[in-house]
Amino acid sequence: MTDRHTHRVIPLQDLRPETLPLPTDALDPSLRIQPNGLLADTRGRALRDLRISVTDRCNFRCNYCMPKEIFDKDYAYLPHSALLSFEEITRLARQFIAHGVQKIRLTGGEPLLRKNLEQLVAQLAALRTLDGTPLDITLTTNGSLLVRKAQALQDAGLRRVTVSLDGLDDAVFRAMNDVDFPVADVLAGIEAARAAGLGPIKINMVVKRGTNEQEILPMARHFRGSGMVLRFIEYMDVGATNGWRMNEVMPSAEVVKLIQSELPLVALEASQPGETAQRWGYADAHGRHDPALGEIGVISSVTQAFCHSCNRARLSTEGQLYLCLFAEKGYDLRSLLRGGASDVDLANAIGHIWQARNDNYSEQRSAMPLDSGAAVKRVEMSYIGG
Ligand code: SAM
Ligand code: SF4
Ligand code: SF4
């Protein structure tokens, strides 16, 4: 344990999120929003991407996400009755799709801890986007249960996965997940996902200065030419428990520079609007991108905000709609669902909530004094879904 770990500053506060009242227009039948995929928020951003947290529990205790000191045996996780059922999730997903959602990411907590998750995947895979094409369904996982689950997920209709992996060195990895989980088991999970045909696989590495930056080059070497896309994520000030400090953020520009020093890279165009990662391709001897060597991505949420193109909504484990990863409160869709709302009512509520959206936290953060986020009451990432 370093001083940084033992002296982490953790504000004492009630972590149970409060809800926001629905916009008044949402319940007025004369102000219906016709779901037609043209919905835009106050900044002109469409709704395209829905992230669904299927559990607030996890078998890891990554110190940047669910630090052991807070998420201990006494932590009050949601009771099963509070969780949205698969039917409720699917019903809501249908209304989001009516407003233009094309991509759904299942997350958590650790999504593979949710029992029979493949049944939810099958229900979502049967849905179609507004233009009649299948949804892009994916899942973010710590990989620990993939050996057991990959084939069933693929059979159910999952097409690809993102696996989080913060280093290849076993000691570093065990310390970061803080439950002594061996890296070899995650690598076996990645292999199982590949063998099941879940691809292209993305690998997410959160870079925390002073903890795992020495793993950047070994990770780059390992995944170069593997057909998998390694993405480096700046350590973010999500939630309120990880004791985030700016000096632990390694800017993506430095990550790219470090990799460039050994493995030449060329900048690539974004593959789709609203993409969070900036893409860099491995170059051949002539300085051109060599697709066989593949690419990396960098997600610079701290140093280069991308709120202007943020088309993501988040549905929490208990059915609250969050408009931003850094939101303090969400809108209670579960009450609507369980209170007898019709599909039209649900779609209308979602439409009005999105139309009034103005969130751009990361852009605002750029203008804040360093480390000023520590005292706010933001919802935890394990609850809202990363
Ligand atoms: N348990 C799954 C996993 O780890 O992949 C899914 C949920 S996790 C909250 C989703 C993603 O958020 C992971 O890739 C994780 O590394 C990332 N994450 C969590 N806390 C973060 C933080 N403070 N800064 C940056 N990324 C973070
Ligand atoms: Fe669990 Fe994922 Fe958070 Fe790590 S990042 S504690 S694996 S939810
Ligand atoms: Fe989207 Fe909020 Fe992240 Fe900005 S800070 S990109 S609005 S989730």
Question: Any overview of this molecule?
Answer:
The structure is a single chain. The chain has one domain (19-384): Alpha-Beta Barrel (TIM Barrel), CATH 3.20.20. It is of the alpha/beta class and 386 residues long. Helix 3 links the parallel strand 3 and strand 4 (136-141). Helices cover 27% and strands 15% of the residues. The protein has twelve helices and 13 strands. Strands 1-13-12-11-2-3-4-5-6-7-10-9-8 form a 13-stranded mixed β-sheet. Helix 2 (86-98) packs parallel to helix 3, helix 2 (86-98) packs across helix 10 and helix 3 packs parallel to helix 4. Residues 1-14 have low confidence and may be disordered. It has helices spanning 3-6, 86-98, 117-125, 146-156, 170-177, 183-195, 216-223, 252-260, 333-338, 343-355, 361-365, 381-384; strands spanning 19-20, 49-53, 103-107, 136-141, 160-164, 202-207, 229-234, 265-267, 278-282, 295-299, 312-315, 320-322, 330-332. It is globular. One iron/sulfur cluster binds at residues 306-307, 310, 312, 324-326, 359-362.
